[in-house]
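Ops channel
N.P.: pipeline sanity check, posting one input/output pair.
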């Protein structure tokens, strides 16, 4: 697994189809701003691989 530390006022580009996860290892609350672009901006194409919040559905299984 590759870890990319992202500091204040920094950004990271996550390519289409890349498996990714965001985690805050610091003591200060983090704010994440997600920006989507392109012809389709829906969220019904999300495939959850792991989910600490029990939202896995369909492709990921558990919450079926």
């Amino acid at each position: 697994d590759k870890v990319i530390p992202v500091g204040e006022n920094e950004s990271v580009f996550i390519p289409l189809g890349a498996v990714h996860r965001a985690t805050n290892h610091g003591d200060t609350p983090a704010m994440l701003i997600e920006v989507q672009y392109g012809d389709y901006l829906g969220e019904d194409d999300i495939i959850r691989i792991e989910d600490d919040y029990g939202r896995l559905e369909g492709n990921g299984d558990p919450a079926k």
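N.P.: looks fine end to end. Confidence is low (pLDDT under 50) at residues 60-64.
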